[in-house]
Amino acid sequence: MDGGATAAAAPPVTVDLRQDSAAVVELTGNLHHLPCSIKYNGSTAISHFFKPKLTGVQVDGLNVEEAHFRGRKLHGTTIDVPHGYSGFILGKKCSSEDESDCCWVTNAKFKNFRAWNHDSMPSKDDAFFRAFHWFPVAETLHKPVTAEELESMSMND
Predict the structure, then answer these.
(1) Fewest Cβ atoms closer than 10 Å to its Cβ: which of 30, 36, 66, 110?
(2) Comparing 10 with 131, which gets the higher pLDDT?
C-alpha cells in the first residue's frame, strides 16, 4: 500500500429512469449503432444524409438493410429490445459544478435500434444478439428459490 493512505470512497450514483418527463425523447425506429467512432455527441439531421433501404435479403431470419456512411457501404438490421426490457439513453445531470452531486437521468427511450456492420452481413452471431442471450441466464440466477424447490433439491442428493 502507500503508507496507510486510503482511497476516498466514490460518492453514490443514482439513476433516474422515470419516463414521465416531456424531455424524454422516443427514439424507437430512429436509433443507429454504427461500426465507427464519430467525435460528436449530439443531435443532427441524419435523416437527410443517412438513408437505409431494405435489400430484400434475409440472413438468419433477419431483414437486411443497406446504407452508406461517408462513402462506405453498411449492412444492418433492426434489433428489438427483448420483451420485458426497455432501452434508455442516459445523460449526466449535476446540481453543482464540482460534480459531487450528480445523477443519471433518462434523456431518451427506445424499443428497437438498427445495428450496422461494415465488413459482414448481420447475423444472429453478432455481438448484440449474443449479449441478449445473457438475459434469461441473469433472470434464472436472480430468481428467488422457494422452500419447496430447496426441499426437492435436497431430496435428490
Answers:
(1) 36
(2) 131
* Nearby residues of 61 by Cβ (< 8 Å), 6 or more positions away: 124
Give SS3 for 149: helix
Residue 76 near residue 121, CB atoms below 8 Å: no
Give me the torsion for CA of 5, 6, 10, 11, rounded to 10°: -90
- Kind and range of the H or E element at 137? helix 134-142
Look at residue 38 in the predicted model and tell me its pLDDT. Answer: 82
The backbone region for 12, taken as left when phi is positive above 0, alpha when psi lies in -120 to 50, beta otherwise, is: beta
User: What is the spatial distance between Cα 23 and Cα 58, in angstroms, rounded to a whole number?
Assistant: 37
3-state secondary structure 94-123: ECCCCCCCEEEEEEEEECEEEEEECCCCCC
Q: Cell numbers 444524409 correspond to what residue? A: 49
